[in-house]
Specification:
The complex is a heterodimer of chains A (171) and B (653). Chain A is 48% helix and 0% strand. Chain A is built from seven helices and no strands. In chain B, strands 6, 7, 8, 9, 10, 11, 12, 13, 14, 18 and 19 form an eleven-stranded mixed beta sheet that branches. The longest helix of chain B has 29 residues. Classes of the chains: A mainly alpha (171), B mainly beta (653). At the A-B interface, helix 1 and helix 3 of A face helix 1 of B.
């Protein structure tokens, strides 16, 4: 009898092994339910996106622009070109001096780094997912997404120059 | 205890074996090395198919785009029929595309798509497809996957032996199925013989912008011209058309047009036609036909009515056309990748007839003619015959080639695809179809270099293959793997309308050219706006024009007053988005038309004629953002006698 049971056991294990792959996967999945194992930590550690202030001149954002230093003087010709692009591609949601669908760009350089501004224009989808300020702004503005208007880096840079020329209205 | 454990163990063992059973059963069918059909058609989520298949929509009038091998449907491109989903033929911009010499026609029967070629291989620039009922040829641009040109074919009726391209897309060719009095006139149908004529049309395609022009037509005897294919390689410069009803019957065709043992394949020397035209041998004749062109810059179509066509008479011009006798009302007329063999699929025969181009030239050279039809020389069957695929099945319809020396022919009556060897004409393999297969397609099949991985069979009847949906059941295509010695059925998938032929191409050739947005700065629509500062509403008598913009997630303006009952209100809506895959829709309560679906950077227009006083809303119909449900606006409609001035606004500025 024992021999029979042993034989059966061997057969059983063979049978199980032969369809082992899918079974094992299922088991793994089942184990994961409700457990807080290390699996999660394999991903990039989740950044805490909750912030207290949307002013941060050191944050360069996420995107093609790693760093950007602005020259001391404003290039007016470049700013004029930027104003034209801004008018066509951005004014549906941004007024230069007033909050509209999105925030006004006036004074933006006192709150954010030049690289952050460029990345917000060029890479808004990823910014909203990964950058705490961009995410907070989305929440503050009713969930209206910053649209990717497919601008070139040159166009974004020109717009940034235009932003430098904006002055707050006298209250 | 022992007994119990024995029971448990044997129970477990059984369970273990049963759970594996299905897999091993499936494997047995195909042998140890046979792979799983499901695996071969499985394209994992987020991954791309290997091929595009452009499948004709048949009596839907459209062209559908599928991925192969998955059989997933990506898009139904509106061509000859109005499509409310995309506003095709409903918005002001595309209505002219459906204009004909008979006026606006909202439908046609689309048949044979073909992809443009360069040097005999598919280049993926355009797809051409014919409208069968009111003869037309359409061109679809594969950067936008939109129909950008439709040209009507005069002197034609039942535009069936169409629309096939020559190997550098010099021409897209269209032949008439029905012969008719040319020019049309009031005569008795009984006077068919000699008075009814057929025409074969050669439409040139501009190599730069694809612009089509009906260069010339060839006047032919009053037969039915069924299908066609171009010569290639050595036979480039020739075009081959199958004919039936050489009896020239006009009634009870199922009997009367099946009397002759042999009909013809007409071999047309179009290079010769070009020579004759240079010599001034063509004749201009009056003909009314519409030429409709969609301009990607203005986002608008214009329809021009043409009034004449250059005609070459095959009965009067020697060496232009020769007739190759071919048994029993041939349907498909197919040319192998080398251009040497011309296959006549004699639909009332069990055999396939294959003609040799080289032999044809030799017979012409030797002037060995058996007679003539209306002055067109008839060659002898034996002189041009290359071989016969004997008793391959019942009701051969169409043949494609894999580029590896094999032909694949569909047999309608015996419901199968038969694989045979070019040159030896022996049958190598056969695979059943479910059911009544018509056309088949191998990606790149109508070219010098077919891709040869798959064959797609398109069936007329599906009966028990799918869940029933009332008396009308789905049309269907079936995909076979032809990489091995034996054809292997991989997949059934439903199609839109009746799939009369398809054209396939490797995806990477097309996808790299696919447009993502229309650039706002290139928008030349007369009612376009490039930024919100330009939005306005104007009045000209009872015509009101709204220059409106749309972007996530508002319309500008979204409050409009001063519209009156009896006004004709044009909503010209520009989508200011410049991001991929962000169209916006719009519709107005009570508008007697469809919604608009506006791509990024595009302008489209719909008309609303308010009939009732009140305040009426409009909204975005395509879920565009988290604030899509907020994307709405109002128009106040006052009585016709009202003196309220037009005003418009957005927000509280």
């Amino acid at each position: 009898m024992k021999i029979l049971i042993n034989a059966l056991l061997i057969l059983l294990s063979v049978a199980l092994v032969s369809c082992g792959n899918s079974e094992e996967k299922k088991e793994e999945k089942q184990l994961k339910i409700g457990s807080k194992e290390k699996v999660e930590t394999k991903k990039e550690p989740q950044k805490d996106l909750a912030i207290t202030s949307t002013i941060d001149l050191n944050n360069k954002g996420v995107g093609p622009i790693k760093d950007l230093e602005l020259p001391a003087t404003i290039d007016n010709e470049m700013a004029t070109r930027g104003e034209a692009v801004f008018k066509t591609k951005c004014t549906a949601c941004h007024k230069p001096l007033k909050k509209f669908i999105g925030p006004p760009p006036v004074g933006i350089l006192e709150k954010r780094s030049p690289a952050w501004i460029m990345n917000m224009i060029l890479n808004p989808e990823e910014m909203v997912q990964k950058d705490p300020i961009a995410r907070q702004l989305l929440i503050d503005h009713n969930g209206s997404p910053m649209a990717n208007q497919s601008l070139t880096e040159t166009e974004a840079r020109e717009i940034l120059e235009y932003f430098r020329t904006l002055k707050k209205e006298e209250e | 205890m022992r007994k119990l454990s024995y029971f448990i163990l044997s129970g477990l063992l059984l369970a273990g074996m049963i759970s594996c059973n299905n897999g091993s059963k499936g494997d047995k069918k195909k042998g140890a090395l046979g792979s799983n059909a499901a695996e071969k058609v499985y394209v994992a989520p987020g991954e791309y198919d290997e091929y595009y298949a452009f499948v004709s929509g048949g009596f839907s009038g459209q062209l559908s785009v599928y991925g192969l091998p998955s059989g997933r449907l990506f898009k139904v491109i509106p061509v000859f029929s109005q499509d409310a989903e995309k506003a095709w033929g409903y918005n002001e911009e595309t209505k002219p595309m459906l204009n004909t010499s008979h006026g606006f026609i909202p439908w046609d029967d689309s048949h044979h798509p073909d992809i443009s070629q360069t040097n005999g291989v598919v280049d993926g620039r355009w797809v051409f497809i014919n409208g069968n009922n009111t003869p037309r040829i359409a061109k679809i641009d594969l950067t936008t996957f939109e129909t950008t040109e439709i040209i009507e074919i005069p002197n034609s009726a039942g535009n069936h032996s169409s629309s096939f391209v020559t190997e550098n897309t010099e021409y897209v060719v269209a032949g008439t199925r029905f012969s008719v009095p040319i020019p049309q006139r009031d005569i008795s149908i009984k006077e068919y013989k000699g008075n009814f004529k057929g025409t074969l049309s050669f439409i040139s395609v501009d190599p730069e912008d694809g612009g089509m022009d009906l260069k010339f037509q060839i006047m032919m005897p009053g037969f039915d011209y069924d299908l066609a294919h171009p010569g290639r390689g050595a036979s480039h410069g020739w075009f081959f058309f199958s004919t039936y009803n050489t009896e020239e019957a006009s009634t009870l065709m199922e009997v009367n047009s099946s009397q002759n043992d042999k009909d013809f394949i007409a071999a047309v020397n179009w290079k010769k036609a070009e020579e004759y035209i240079k010599q001034g041998k063509g004749k201009m004749m009056p003909a009314k036909y519409a030429h409709n062109v969609y301009d990607e810059k203005t986002h608008m179509a214009t329809s021009t009515m043409k009034d004449q066509v250059l005609m070459l008479d095959a009965s009067e011009l020697p060496e232009l056309v020769y007739l190759l006798p071919t048994p029993k009302s041939p349907h498909g007329c197919d040319v192998d990748p080398t251009g040497e063999y011309i296959v006549g699929n004699g639909k009332l025969s069990a055999n396939l007839t294959v003609h040799s181009f080289t032999k044809m030239l030799a017979a012409i050279e030797a002037e060995k003619f058996e007679g003539d039809a209306y002055g067109i020389p008839i060659l002898s069957f034996e002189d041009v015959l290359a071989g016969v695929v004997e008793q391959a099945g019942l009701g051969p319809l169409h043949t494609e080639f894999d580029g590896k020396g094999n032909g694949y022919t569909t047999f309608f009556i015996s419901s199968e695809v038969v694989k045979w060897k070019v040159g030896t004409w022996e049958v190598i393999d056969r695979a059943p179809c479910y059911y009544s297969v018509g056309h088949l397609m191998i990606p790149g099949g109508n070219s010098r270099e077919p891709f040869g991985d798959y064959v797609l069979a398109m069936n007329k009847i599906t009966k028990d293959r799918y869940l029933p949906t009332g008396p009308e059941v789905t049309q269907s295509a079936q995909l076979y793997d032809i990489r091995g010695d034996k054809m292997e059925l991989l997949l059934d998938f439903p199609t839109v309308g009746e799939p009369h032929y398809a054209a396939g191409i490797r995806a990477d050739i097309v996808m790299k050219n696919s447009k993502k947005i229309f650039k706002l700065e290139e928008n030349e629509h007369p009612y376009a706006i490039t930024n919100e500062g330009e939005t306005k509403v104007t009045r000209n008598g009872n015509e009101v024009h709204i220059y409106m913009s749309t972007i996530r997630s508002h319309f500008n303006p979204d409050n409009i007053e001063g519209v009156k009952v009896g006004d004709k209100v044009y909503f010209h809506v520009t989508n200011l988005e410049q991001d991929y895959d962000v169209p916006h829709g719009i519709s107005m309560i009570g508008a007697n038309t469809s919604e608009l679906l506006i791509m990024p950077g595009q302008t489209e227009t719909f008309v609303w004629e308010p009939k009732q006083v009140g305040v009426w809303p409009f909204y975005c119909t395509d879920f565009c953002s988290a604030l899509h449900q907020e994307m709405q606006g109002y128009v106040r409609v006052s009585p016709a006698s009202s003196s309220i001035e037009l005003s418009w606004s957005l927000g509280e500025d």
